[in-house]
Amino acid sequence: MAKRKLGSSIKLVVIAMLTVGVTNVISSTWPALAMSVSKADPRYQTTMTTTNQAGQHDQRHLVMGKHIDHVSNSTGFVQVFPNRRRQTFTGVGGALTDSAASVIQKSRPQTRRQILTAYFGAQGARYTNLRLTIGSTDFSTFGYTYAKQATPATFSLKPDDVHVSPVLQQILKQAPNVQIMAAPWAPPKWMKVSHRRDGQNFLVNNALKRAAMSAYADYLVKYVDAQQRRGVAIKTLSLQNELQASSPWEAMTWTPDAAATFITHYLGPKLKARHPQTKIMVWDYVKSDATQPIMMGFNQWTQEFYAHRGVHQYVDSVGVHWYAASLNAQMSLGNLSGQPAWDDNFNNLDLFHRQQPQQQIIATEAAQEKGVWLNQWTPAARYGYDIINDFEHHVQGYLDWNLVLNGQGGPTHAAVNPCGAAINVLHAGTPKEQLVINPAYYVLKRVSRDVQPGTVSVASTTNRQLDHTAILQHDGSTRLLLENRSSKVQTVQAVIGHRAYKVRLTPHSFNSLQLPKQTAKNLKTPPITHTPTSLKRLSRFDNHWVTPIYRFLGLQD
């Protein structure tokens, strides 16, 4: 019996020695694995959420970290500085167009609930912003205004009652604090010089009649009045969607001088008298200086507009879209290849912020054009890229275009302009009805949850070619958004204070890393050679246009 006890004791000692030996081997050979094994210190444990091309959607996984005393250029890193605060965010959202509302209305009740919960529910994207259209647009099922004749008594929101208003009321029940902006595409045709609501082309005078300025100001204020009576508060009123574009659907153009006159003498005073809480947004168009022939670009238009005294008391923001306009080189290539084209001139946002630091910059529209893009990764990647770079260049809010579209990228009533959406409903209202939640939805969902109103953009830097931005949360923690647009895994350390978290970014992925509240001073950042913006834009141009052409010709794998 004594021998058996002694033998058992020896076995236990040997097992213990072997265990220690194995642990030491793990620690010396696979330090990351050893870190995962040791969970004694919860300070170095966090989570990352990933959506990628491989089919992971909003997947959470554990990330372990460690204490460090310096940051080294020998490994890839993204360093976050929560104490270097920048712009405060207003939130994320989308547009309730007549087209979107019609698809939602036509869908089965269960599908309708799924859509609204996905966007506005506590377990969904938690959208906090909504864009409405004042009258019909390219994404409406029919053309309409709220006043067919030049008499105030004829104004009525009745056209909205067909699709938009019922869905809007359902949204407000689920998200009563949602912030609403509204934008017109065109006034009643009798107010325009052309006597047409559609823009036709740049050779047509698509301006508002000078004699109609007072009537049009009344028209817009009446819209805000009517919505208020329905319990809908309009926080922001855009002067005009795409005010330097003569599109083949509803459109109107404004020169800086005409816009300043209209706002300071007509719309501004009337709106302030009745709705002092409602502010005016201008531009609401692309970021670049290349728009359409004889039209102005972002820099010239905004500089000339804000040079007018008096506009600042009524205007508090500019809106920007992600599209490339007609004169942009990428648009020319897109038209030739049948691919969508985007405007990546983020430097203009920096210039505007330096010139008008008190004015907000809001990204008001984004949509993947030239197709429906069901279940495809390309739109999701583009949203990630555009959002991160917008946030790195002073943008305070982000709104997608149509909340929902059908299986043809519509419906539309004017020119055929099929677009992608984060959510599609195929065969709505039929036995074949199918709800499609695209990868882009999960990118927008994650951004919206991380960028709630009042969160703050903070500085970050990296020694790798990696899109990144950081958001300080209300509880003092930080969310680090990382997009890997390459076809290879990227491994980097996310550094905050003296903590470093090793993250593995899967190919073609959008990631949100949760970082704890910083408790130590920032470590010194090693010298980083930053790629000039012009070369970054050239690289993006190459990735989007040259590489696909080479692959098509069989010149590149």
From TrEMBL:
Q: Which InterPro entries match?
A: GH (IPR017853), Glyco_hydro_30 (IPR001139), Glyco_hydro_30_TIM-barrel (IPR033453)
For this UniProt record, give its keywords in alphabetical order, as a comma-separated list: Glycosidase, Hydrolase, Signal
Record has Hydrolase as a keyword: yes
Superkingdom of origin organism: Bacteria
Gene Ontology molecular function terms on file: glucosylceramidase activity
Per the UniProt record, one Pfam family is: Glyco_hydro_30
UniProt domain Glycosyl hydrolase family 30 TIM-barrel: residue ranges: 90-447
Provide the GO biological process annotations.
Answer: glucosylceramide catabolic process
Per the UniProt record, which residue ranges are transmembrane?
A: none
GO terms for cellular component: membrane
PANTHER family recorded = GLUCOSYLCERAMIDASE, LYSOSOMAL ACID GLUCOSYLCERAMIDASE
Family the entry assigns: Belongs to the glycosyl hydrolase 30 family.
Stated name of the protein: Glycosyl hydrolase family 30 TIM-barrel domain-containing protein
Where does this protein come from, organism-wise? Furfurilactobacillus rossiae
